[in-house]
Amino acid sequence: MELLFLGTSSGTPTKSRNVTALAVLDEQGPGWCLVDAGEGTQHQVLKSPLSLRDLRAILVTHVHGDHCYGLPGLLASAGLSGRQAPLQIIAPEGIEEWLRATQAATQLHLPFEMEFIRAEPVRHLPLGPWRVDAVELSHRVPSFAYAFTEAQVEPMLDTEKLAQDGVPQGPLWGRLKKGIEVEHAGRVLRPADYLKHPFAPRKIIVGGDNDRPDLLAEACAGCQVLVHEATYTADVAAKVGPGVGHSHAAAVAAFAESVGLPHLVLTHFSARYQANTGESSGMGSGPTIDDIRAEAAAAYRGQLWLADDFARYRLLRTGEFGPVSGPPT
Amino acid sequence: MELLFLGTSSGTPTKSRNVTALAVLDEQGPGWCLVDAGEGTQHQVLKSPLSLRDLRAILVTHVHGDHCYGLPGLLASAGLSGRQAPLQIIAPEGIEEWLRATQAATQLHLPFEMEFIRAEPVRHLPLGPWRVDAVELSHRVPSFAYAFTEAQVEPMLDTEKLAQDGVPQGPLWGRLKKGIEVEHAGRVLRPADYLKHPFAPRKIIVGGDNDRPDLLAEACAGCQVLVHEATYTADVAAKVGPGVGHSHAAAVAAFAESVGLPHLVLTHFSARYQANTGESSGMGSGPTIDDIRAEAAAAYRGQLWLADDFARYRLLRTGEFGPVSGPPT
What we know:
The structure is a homodimer of 329-residue chains. The first copy, chain A, is 23% helix and 27% strand. With 329 residues, chain A is an alpha/beta fold. Chain A has an 8-stranded mixed β-sheet. A 7-stranded mixed β-sheet of chain A has the order 8-9-10-15-16-17-19, with helices on one face.
């Protein structure tokens, strides 16, 4: 299961980061889910291996423009590409009404159905191999995190026990693995006795804008990966004031540490943070992405990642998580 | 006076062309006008020497998304950049209502006023050094061309006549040039007698989507440059059918020829046209931008240009027009 970041800037795009969008992929096929669609998301999709025809669902965390202004153009282009399959759109109140108003105002006729689902009551929503839950966050407008949990964990055969019980390797093993009872040596063998689940279901949480990471404490149980905004460092957050409803790196990191989260991916960086010290303009004092990294690293002992546009991460069955190398296209 | 193309694709962006947007610049300063703003226009502005703070006005040709879906994000970013100056938005019915609805739905609070002007009755609207007139076109929705005419042509002194009449070079010449009457050798000299206007006012027409170029015949009088869509070649247009409301290259070129237009710039090319034959995929038969060029060139004897993203053209006082070299940033 993979995450492909399509935008990692907050508020406005920069020359190296687009506004928020994240593709969530799985091993079942080309189908993918999109969390948020800031302006220019379809342009990022063009530069990726993704296709709008394979898009299974769009999940919108909140109504702010840097998370949704890419929706109308992306939907229009999906239509022009010949997509006919219905598209699920899970979003807070306001998005459906705005998209319908946009369709009417701009004469946008889509050759596929949009199936809107309100974020508020989303619990265990089946979405491909996932079961999705919405968690309400704290921001200037209603904002949600989406927890993607693997719906079905593929079991492994307990080959030691099969050997002990004298069950010969072959078709019997295959049927047991598929969950089918078999007969052997006059005995009925039940799959439950020969299957084990060594790995917990994979779980990834993708947060929207949020100034209270602790609201995710319960959802983080059994979660391997949290993607969360870290718009600022603590010093800048103090200057900006609490009214913006964003988190700073130290707060997110401390939260992740407190719940023992194994992997934390930070994103949604204010455009004021330069790419890194090496690329700074020489004008001296501007903060850099490295400042965000250092602040988070000081408060968190798990594996920390700062997302870039087109960064791709893979979560294995074993719970291991890390960047996938290779060209984006 | 310059044109800087920010998007030259119709319908959907491609890897090398964004959807429609065009900056109109002048010699008076950094102020500029934007005609249309497809999704990603603010991203193109980021890659250009333009600043959203200097934006004087936005003119929208029609409500289709590939001409306006970039407006909300561009306005939001202008606000985040600290712009406070009011912004004129000249647009057909529907755009103001949609932008107001978008503001409400996405909680977009702008620190500047938007001053909406309906395109329909726009006649001689002063816009910096320009006087702008809207011309109604033919498309699936109300669509307009905007004619930019230089409001004031700087006169030149008739130095021959001044010498003949014995008016000595110096302050007297300067005052006459400014349009002030002077006294010399007991006579009152009137500026009108010593000023000449060797060049006609510059005039550029930027069309919206349109399947009847002939609607621009009257407006093209005294016009040096027409920017017009050529979405298709004639063969593709025949396949697509007349319902789309677009022009093909041969029709636009024949119109330009019929009115003796000196310079024609084609844009808004269907994404099916590959960059050129050299870059084609080798799969053989796809049409190219060169096909559009060849079709137009066969019907038009004036100077023909096919716009690319970030192509920049300059119109001199003399009426000369052509590409400006130099890097876009």
